[in-house]
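User: I'm curious what two different proteins look like when written out as structure tokens. Can you demonstrate?

Assistant: Sure. I'll show them one after the other, since each token string lines up with its own sequence. Here's the first protein:
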Amino acid sequence: MGWPSLEQKDRSGFTTWRRMLEPLLQDNGECLEDVIMEWGEIPYEDNIPVLSDPEELDREFYPGFGTVRGRPFVAYTSRSIYFVHAYDGLETIRHIPRNPGSGMKPRHYSDYL
């Protein structure tokens, strides 16, 4: 059995950037209203339309090993920088402090799994 496709009816294992980002934001005392998003290019050739920020945050994709499917982004708040990290197709969100010496520790989404 191969990796799930976007057309697969059983969507178990699929997620959205919002589901991954919100726990990190909450842990840092931040919320989506604090975020400025910068989106990258869609990493595959499926003629999928580019959506507005809220719609992109809720687009479902399979973040597991295989082909990178989530649209990359960098999200800024006054205290933090959140960014997509992909390794062998496994997609997570990482966080670093925006200002050195702030006392905040770098984190990534898998800390919450």
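Here's a second, unrelated protein for contrast:
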Amino acid sequence: MSTRKMARGAPAAVTAVTVVAVVEGSGAIEVRVMDEVTGRPLVGATLRLFRARDLDAGVFRSWTVDDWNNWRPEDHEALIDERTGPEGIVTFEGLEPDVYFALYDHVTPADGPNVYRYVGGLVGAEQVLKLAIRLPIGPQVTFDFESPGAAQRTKDAIVGNHAIATVTFQGSGSAVSDRVGLEADGTWQPESGGAYAAGLLIRKPGRYQFTGRLVFARRAGLITGTPHRVGANIPNGAMLAVNGEFNAEERPAQPISGNIGVSLSRTETEATPDLALWTLIRNSTEALGFNNYMDFLDQLFCVPPADAAGAPFERSRFGKKASVFQSLKTRRALPFTDSEAYRVLKAATEAFVMVNCGVFREPYAFDPVNDNAYLDRRDIPSAGNLRDTLIEDYLESVGGTEMLPYLAVIRRKLPDVPIIVPSTTHCEEAELCFGIIQDRLSNPCLIELIWSYWQEEGMLVQTMNVITQRFQNLRSPLATDPLANTEIDMLRPLNNLLWGYTQDEQHRLTVVRRNYEYDHHYGIRLDGKAVRNMRPADSRSKFLEAFHHLLRLLTSFYRQDDDTTVKADAFPILNALKEVHLILSQGAHNQYGDLPSTARIEMLMQQWLLARPEFREFLPTRVMVAYPEPWMDRVDAMKKLQMWSDTSVMHFRNLAIFGEQLLLSIRFGHWSDVYEATQAFNWARFWRPQAQGYIHAYRAATGVDLSIDAANPAEEATLPSVLLRQRLAQQQRTAV
């Protein structure tokens, strides 16, 4: 029995095949599939086993030359399919004595589409018939090289060139080759074009090796992907290993002349979800600023809303603030006569603060164009749509309520306490029930009391106090009354506003209450006769030291971050943030929920009253000084008249704004559970203008420079009020 492979149309080597005996027992067929040129095995090749049958489907008895030449798989009984192993061998066992054929069921590029590669023979009992299918493939690997910027290929294997390995084989240009793919190992990447090629950048001298596989599809199979390309996905393909190697040499040194430009860039970082929170804090605190507050009052009482300016989210909030104002106006009353103007002002200010401080509701305080520009200036990659990032990636849902991760931790500590959901008509009554107020959990008011502290240290409250004393005809304790000519006639609106403000003094926070709360939140306090003999129950004595330590670390971090040859270390920043966050959270009790917003309402009204044009008549101000808010020159003028500190209120206003933004981002960030420095790295970059602005303003106000290398822990831990008193004493000694 002949066992050589045959193809349709090929000349036969025998004239007949005759089966003469059937022996008891079973036999086996071992078939090896290989490349006849290189002798390498084809791994994973599918072989189909057929039992021979005559053309009339009877038991096979004899074959002629024509039968061999016209062999077709459909004429015989299909038994089983098997795939070759690592050596290219497959064994069919347990065969009854008979004539069998093994068909190589993959494309052969050198053959036509109707050519079959098969072997056959007689299997006897207790016999292993060994056959081989040798395929004309003959793969060859050749290497070409491309120089940087040059399209023409060469044979120069030198460092910096792009190596291209091209695999050719018999029939690689025929139509059947569309069902043959190339898979490359390692870092070799597909090359564009129709050739079986992969590329690699030569980075250093030495030996480079290309290894891969030609993958041949099943006869009825398809390639998933682009034909010829590296990495084409051919399921159940037959694989033939290919390899080649070359030696690369160093690129010859070439002399160059002229100017050579080299640039370095800052350390890259990645976006984190809390960028959305920080952006929300920055935008909301700016929306709570005095200029925006004054615009709101003008729109509400004077200018039509269509003339309003500002960010889109702020314009869309006007209706909400106006609605809250109308609601408050009917519920807020004063037990004094002729104080309607002041009562309306107070209700409008409360509505402004209520809407602008609770920002975790639609419309969110995002301004996409300006927000992305701000991130770009800080070299922080954008997190995409910040609103979607906040809702989908940052906020956590606990019991169906969306909240900040920090507040989610607090909520999980109280699983037995229900959440009170107020009704739309009786919101205040919900606070009479036992439980957690939902609005304070999901929509906390983003206000820090440090804003009020620095405004008070800047003499805002004291300025209004001396004005109301003069309004009540009380003489100044100074030998010469600086406000002796302050006469506000009854024809001006300011007259009635000051009347209502003076009458409402009993309903405002006292300096003592604010001072105790400053100490409870931050361990800082005012200095003066009205606040002596304090007996605080709970003071944050370590806050000032921890906060100033953080600011000093930021100064060092910014120096490293600006040096493009150094990767700034943010882990010290992270640890300092954790410490400040812990101290701040300890003070978030008792009056924390209401006193900061109440103090903000009162001081905004004080600023608005001082910004009234009537004060220009009896407070001599410096017109050419560009104060960012119109009330500020009145305070500086009063400080000059009363011989108070000559430090401009500008610095105290900056301390208030920047300090509030920094502390809000620390208080409401989930820093206790952060262990990677990426968030601290982004925090430092995001808040750099605010941090460095605070450091500068603190030096200008107190004389303590937190940016110098030589630290003075004792001086940095000294209360700001003590430092201000010392500077005032020095100023008075110098003036004598």
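A detail about the second structure: The radius of gyration is 43 Å.
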